[in-house]
Amino acid sequence: ILNNNTALKDEVANMGMPIVRTFTVELEGGYHAPVRLFLPPGLLEEEDFKFPLILHVDGSPGSQQVSEKWGLSWATYLTSQKNFIVAEIDGRGTGFQGESLRHSVYRKLGNLEVNDHLEITQ
After folding, report:
1. What is the pLDDT along the chain (122 residues), one digit of tens a residue?
2. Reported pTM
3. Which CATH number fits the domain that encloses residue 22?
4. What ranges in the chain are assigned the alpha helix state H?
5. What is the domain count for the chain?
């Protein structure tokens, strides 16, 4: 039996949940980094407001932060209750992007990933 969670979607739609945007950013060298932004509910992107940004970093090789998995997290709380923007980035070396990218950080741990995060946030 396939369940599309219609009741849950209706319930969550009435809450002040963050706006979630998932996209990729092309970096130097041709790598496409997956990025997920949690934006405050009710944010009007065409208006000129400033919000604090938290960059959620998980630098462990083989890990994955950006996916289509739904759930509640610290990022959800900070975004919906405190009006922060939270960014998650899967830089080089993270999982599920092929062995060549996962091994690209071999003996360079902490260099390529940091450069990826800096390039995206600028």
Report:
1. 678 888 887 887 777 889 899 998 888 878 888 899 999 988 877 778 888 989 888 766 666 778 777 788 899 999 998 999 999 988 776 666 666 666 666 676 666 777 777 777 87
2. 0.74
3. 3.40.50.1820
4. 6-13, 74-82, 99-102, 112-121
5. 1
